[in-house]
Design goal:
241 residues, TIM Barrel, two-stranded parallel sheet, globular
Length: 241
C-alpha cells in the first residue's frame, strides 16, 4: 500500500482529532512490521511506482505534536510533515468556522515550529486562518495562501511546496489557485495513493482516527484494513461527508 496518513493531535483526550502517543507508536511499528517503509511525503509523492511506502502528516499545528509526537517519531527515526495554520500559531484552534463540537487545543509556538523544522520535519502550508477556501473571493483566497507562505518563508527560510486544504474542501477554482503556488495539495479523502494516477492537487490521505486499533496496525496494508477502509468510505458517502 502507498499512503499518506493524516493526524491532528497526539494526546489522551480520545477526541476525533486525537490519537494517543502509545497508539502512534503502535501504528508506526505495525506499518513497518507489515513491510512498509516510512518516508518523507515528498519522497513518497516523487516515486509513485515504488510500493509499500507510507508518509506521516499532521494538520493544523497543535502543541501536542511537539510535546508528544516528536519524541515518539524521533525514537522511531520516522520522518513527518506538518501542515501549519500560520495565523493561529501561539493561540488555539478556535478559528472562524470551527464546528461547535470540535474540541479546543493549544497550538504550537513559532519556537516549537522552528524546533520541529530543525529536527528534520517538513513544514508545509495549511493556510493562514483555516478558512473554507471555496467561499472566499479571489483576493481572500490569495491572502490565505500568500499569507501562510510568507510566514513560513520568513520563519523557516523555505517557501512551502505543499498545501493541505482546510476541512479537505476544494473545488476547481481552489485547485487551480493551489496549482499556481504549490507542487501538490492534500485532501481528507479516505483512500490510499494509486500508482501515479492521482491528481497532485487532490491527493487522498488515510485519517488516523480510523487507524487507532492495534488490530489494524497488525494488518496494515492487508485485506482486513482494505475492507475496513472501503466500508468507512461508503459510510462517508452515505452521510454526505
Amino acid at each position: 500500500m502507498r499512503a499518506a496518513l493524516s493526524f491532528h493531535g497526539i494526546d489522551e483526550s480520545g477526541s476525533v482529532l486525537s490519537m494517543s502517543a502509545g497508539e502512534l507508536a503502535s501504528l508506526v511499528r505495525g506499518v513497518r512490521d507489515a513491510g512498509h517503509e516510512i518516508v518523507p511525503l515528498a519522497e513518497l509523492l516523487g516515486e509513485p511506482e515504488t510500493p509499500d511506502r507510507v508518509a506521516l502528516t499532521f494538520d493544523d499545528g497543535f502543541h501536542s505534536v511537539f510535546e508528544e509526537a516528536l519524541p515518539v517519531l524521533r525514537a522511531a527515526d520516522a520522518p513527518a510533515t506538518l501542515f501549519l495554520t500560520t495565523g493561529f500559531v501561539g493561540k488555539d484552534n478556535g478559528w472562524p468556522g470551527q464546528p461547535a463540537w470540535a474540541p479546543r487545543f493549544p497550538m504550537l509556538t513559532w519556537q516549537e515550529v522552528e524546533a520541529l523544522h530543525e529536527a528534520g520535519w517538513t513544514i508545509e502550508a495549511h493556510t493562514a486562518r483555516h478558512a473554507d477556501l471555496r467561499g472566499l473571493s479571489d483576493d481572500q483566497l490569495e491572502d490565505e495562501l500568500a499569507g501562510a507562505d510568507a510566514a513560513l518563508e520568513e520563519r523557516l527560510g523555505r517557501r512551502p511546496e505543499g498545501l493541505a486544504y482546510p476541512y479537505g474542501f476544494h473545488d476547481v477554482r481552489v485547485r487551480e489557485k493551489a496549482r499556481s503556488r504549490y507542487r501538490f495539495a492534500v485532501t481528507t479523502e479516505l483512500a490510499p495513493l494509486s500508482r501515479g494516477r492521482d491528481d497532485p492537487m487532490a491527493l487522498p490521505r488515510l485519517d488516523s482516527f480510523y487507524l487507532r486499533s492495534p488490530r489494524l496496525h497488525r494488518h496494515f496494508g492487508g485485506a482486513l484494513l482494505q475492507g475496513y477502509l472501503g466500508a468507512r468510505r461508503l459510510l462517508r458517502r452515505v452521510r454526505g461527508r
